[in-house]
């Protein structure tokens, strides 16, 4: 062997390549790409056992590398198109990962898997995103980085010694397995789910046989395994894994499902769709293959059931047709064959013992495609979403083109064989659908375009009588000229003979049909298109057994299936797209003038017969500038749409309504997805086929590719279609087509169901009379798009377009989704909840666009409380009408609550803290618009109580809120707890979100688990479930995120907070007692609360708030307490809870602000309350959480008769202090700053002594017992 010729490669590291000499001249060789093992933890390509030099002697190039070499292999004599990847141990895991991953598509042709794959439990991976993130954060902590810092990855990347990252966790063995993370972009789905959804790509070469005596694994449904042993290389084993992998472990690994039918046993798969498990069965044969003598003949039922299990997890064959690259790219690749008579079923229920009363309506779909193209396997017709509306969906393949509709004038070729196929499939469904949970007596047939033509054929045909109860006719009906069909038996026979002549058969030979049946290549039967056409439309033959008479005559004499309810409709603009597809050369390839227009109408008349060309031309060119080709093309499109689609569908339905006693509903589809823009269909041109996308839920299946309005409209459309199938009336507001001799058509457009505004500032408010002042109130002002569909959990999106109609600001808007507690409802007023809740309210004394800037007033922006779980600006205690009498403008905002507002999904579409982003967008809206309400955008004070105070503190900390406000009032609450760990970090937040997904039936290990959560129709299901007795669940925001990147203590230390804001903060004197009882009613009220129970509850609290020194805290709060008195113990726990959750966070937050910032900080202790609190066990000595709220919003002033005089006066004082701070920072003459020359000074707010200043009331608690915690 001569010297090896090496080619130097720049920048190639960590690779090993073996090849023979002369690589520049010899043919390129197959490449074997080796991935070494080692538990994904150890190993190297340089280990002796991985040396590939011997393999390279077998005419292959051997590569072992740490990165992809597909672009370089040719330099070593390797063929980049013949790459086989292989590996053992962890290397085989890698091979299986590439087989599964969409990112590895087309990079190799073959794979060898040695000893294992990445497929374990079907329900949960070894490592999902939550466990993976937790593992990463643990490593962060181990090497000295802060796992709660938003930039923790930046810190990891600065670790100089990479071996530190490999240090095992204490307790690990010396040899640690590493596992890849599922639910990621590289591995988006569990393998079982990937196989079930056919997302795995399957183009591994099938023509490479490794050994002469080696059958394939799946050999006619028999498992065959090659035994590799030099003592007997011919041994083939029959499933040696039958009792283990296919037995005891089957349900651990697999989610397949088998159903027995007359065709044989069918194996399907389970899909997870919108929180429901939908079983999908594809490739079910319903007839013998129409080959040989059965070509052109009506189908024959299967003679015997299939012996082997029918694999319904894979696509079957589609019928012979023209394959157009554009359609293929848009709708998916098909494999075509004459052996194509199969159907698919999607259902939620299977079994032979389903009670008849629980069987569901069946929707039988017939695809479109001009009777020439199409397949149930095109992704547009995926039936997996419709069954969530409690129906069973069936879709059918049928013969197309001349193979499906050739008329041979005898019983072996009676014409319309494709319709007979559909008929046979319908009969199969009636025989078998009960095994799939379907009711044979509640079948609705539906179809679009040629599928709709097919539906109308079954409505007319005596052969189909009694097989279905309802029909939906979508854009097409077999009703054209009243005197002559497009194709009768004479024209049909002539066309068939012309086909015979074209393929070389003698049309004058008695056995011309036998000759046609003997043609081996069925593609020769496909009609040839003229230049530019995608396909040739096929028309059925009238005057035959299936279609004996014209529709008009059938209606006249009653020879049709009149006992069927009908829903029918068309797209608003059927013709433009169809015309260009059918006549591309005439309409696009040359100047389309008046002469060309008339010529094309004449051509149409030759085809559709008896058109009064002059009359039609005059009508469609009325008011058209015939010198403009684009206007002429549009006019012809309108003509063509009316002739071919709109008028046949409408008139068919109209005659049905006139002649039949059954209901008929008609729609005009007036909306479409952006997909149609590429076909020249804009918002004013709703093209043919616009409805199909929505009927089959494509915007729901692939939500990220569509707009929010598409998602919502698709849910509506599917509900309309399935409602019709279930209970006749598709929609509450939809009269029948023939309504007391008046034609009534439903316009289907989602915009008709909502108000779209021209001017976001054009709104109607109302004037209130308050304390001898006129205050203008504006409610229900939207500041963002509705957070539905893809926007659920996402940061809010500003309104895309102004509303066209006046916003009614005189009524309450919707409140955000939350638990409705009767006690709170009685106390605070009823609210109506919805996800469409992102609105705000404004109270002002002045409005207008011409207010001089010097007369603009300070703005007070209020954020309501409620544990980030409940609350609304529309609750009466948050009514902002009184505060403006003190010369401010008041704004109050709704924001998303609970998991809908704070779920953390670990990506930009669900970054956590969406409720805070809502508040942020509302703040930006205020800065943009508040001048119209007399407010000064540069004098905004944000304020809030309880969770509203948490929100205020979040904006004080967040870099995203910088510069949006000048002052802040923090009333009882701040997001500052343990200094070492947040209540909720990203790991805990993601785990909580995944648990929510699991609870509502979504797969938490699916890469698209968020899409599933977004598809949940009832948003109330996403609410956290409260334990017995609790009114609601406290929700905590997520730290380590973009909005809250670092803990407050670290922010104060580093200066990374909005320090240029003046603060007023405070707490009620006794924050805890009422809060503790509301949060822990079972422990504190219903059971004996002794010392053990006290300690247990402190331990529970530490589990939430982390790192509490329980012994130290218990000892402090129980000193001088008689532990034998439950009521004393309850009060002691209340004091502890109040200090931990409200008082110390608020006080220490304000104290650190005062020490670190140069801005003024004022602090109060609220020491008075209304009689209202007595019902909560709050007496004069227990000033409870929320005591300040009634006074701040002037409730004793608004409803004076319900309060004492002292309440009335004190409320006026409190409102003056709050507004004074907003106007000029100084709230009261006798109120020193909190940090006054290193002395803590707190103002006591009590009407009995407004001059009292307290010297640090928190010295023994917040500044002592809790100091190390915070």
TrEMBL record:
What's the short name of a Pfam family annotated to this entry?
COesterase
Entry's Gene Ontology BP terms = acetylcholine catabolic process; choline metabolic process
Q: Name one GO molecular function term.
A: acetylcholinesterase activity
Q: Which UniProt keywords apply?
A: Glycoprotein, Hydrolase, Serine esterase
Q: Which PROSITE patterns match?
A: CARBOXYLESTERASE_B_1 (PS00122)
What InterPro entries does its record include? AB_hydrolase_fold (IPR029058), AChE-related_enzymes (IPR050654), CarbesteraseB (IPR002018), Carboxylesterase_B_AS (IPR019826)
Q: Name one GO cellular component term.
A: extracellular space
Q: Where is the Carboxylesterase type B domain?
A: 27-69, 74-199, 258-737, 763-1234
The organism's superkingdom is given as: Eukaryota
Which family does the entry's similarity section mention?
Belongs to the type-B carboxylesterase/lipase family.
**What's the name of the protein?**
Carboxylesterase type B domain-containing protein
